[in-house]
Amino acid sequence: MRTTVGIIGAGPAGLLLARLLHNAGIDSVVLESRDRAYVERRQRAGILEQGTADVLRAAGAGERMDREGLRHDGIELRFDRTRHRVDFPALTGGRSVMVYAQTEVCKDLIALQLREGGPLLFEAEALAVEDAGTDTPRIRFRHEGREDVLECSYVVGCDGFWGVARKAIPAGMAQVFERTYPFGWLGILADVPPSHDELVYARHERGFALLSMRSPAVSRLYLQVPDGTDPGAWGDEEIWDELERRFETADDWYLRRGPITQKTVTPMRSYVHEPMRHGRLFLAGDAAHIVPPTGAKGLNLAAGDVVTFARALVHRQETGSPELLDAYSQTCLRRVWQAERFSYDMTTLLHRAPGATPFEDRLQLARLERIASSRAAETDLAEAYTGFPIG
């Protein structure tokens, strides 16, 4: 098999890249190790920045998002039983975010790719990227019980932290920056309408809590828990009681309860791999960087990476200049590090670290009070949350 761009991974990054390339008249092949049903049901991110939503619309993949997604014009911060709303459009010149689950983004892009795009092979396990430093990289993969080779002009690794793409970059060329956090998120899906019409980020002395949603009828909520927590160790009523404590306010707001349909624990880490390119191999999304979910940046960073690559390749095709491709890693990393900074700031602002001192607790409250009282501080949060410029 031969193609211009071999894409490893059919998550939102790989699928969006295939769509962007198709619209530009550039052929690609997508290899995905899992089956279609798995890709379309794995729960991940649910917040799309303004720029990500705009890219999906421009790519022809925004119709159902605009019909079924939930536009959010702000978030609420809770601390010391007080509530403060951050108004995104008022602070950013009209920008907002969209609540639309990664599963739905993948369903939309898969349907488009199978109907209009190039080959999308499910249950095609990438085994290795070979000759990445040459002009003729190859992906060795297994599909339908036999090994095959995909010869490419370029390879884009959208295969996550555990994938094979990053392993093809020589260790001596790589530099890794990371931080692990001593807590995670116990997340639940519940068949109950959300208790607030926007996301609520709560800082509490017992730990962080987040109120989110997947639809007008399904709530998504999170609790800060110690790292390594078993989600099955928490009973349903125990979860609701703890959420109620952490979201408590001085007014008459109350938390709606309902049947819990899913419990998971998400670990928290920050990770960046530099560079994001080696020869004709380009890394995108979790293959190159991971952020704690507090800033809602993971999917959006991945979208920014593939938009940057697609623009650079189109520029190469149209002008013959490799300038933008050569700058891919540097261009992406500027945005990545801003997102890492913001996600770290949000995480340390809202989570109570084990063994935190009274001094550290008061600093957190002072930071929150600064956001609530300063338009400049509030604007900085709103601009970062709604998204950094792509490219």
What features would you describe in this structure?
This protein is of the alpha+beta class and 391 residues long. It is 36% helix and 30% strand. The chain has twelve helices and 19 strands. Strands 1, 2, 8, 9, 10, 11, 17 and 18 form an eight-stranded mixed β-sheet that branches. Strands 6-5-13-14-15-12-16-19 form an eight-stranded mixed β-sheet. It has a three-stranded antiparallel β-sheet with strand order 3-7-4. The longest helix has 23 residues, at 328-350. The radius of gyration is 21 Å and the shape is globular. The two termini are 32 Å apart. The model has no long low-confidence stretch (mean pLDDT 96).
Shape: globular
Strand content: 25-35%
Described by strand count, sense and barrel closure, the largest sheet is: 8 strands, mixed
Rounded to an integer in angstroms, the radius of gyration calculated over CA atoms is: 21 Å
Mean pLDDT comes to 96
In angstroms, what separates the terminal alpha carbons? 32 Å
Helix vs. strand class: alpha+beta
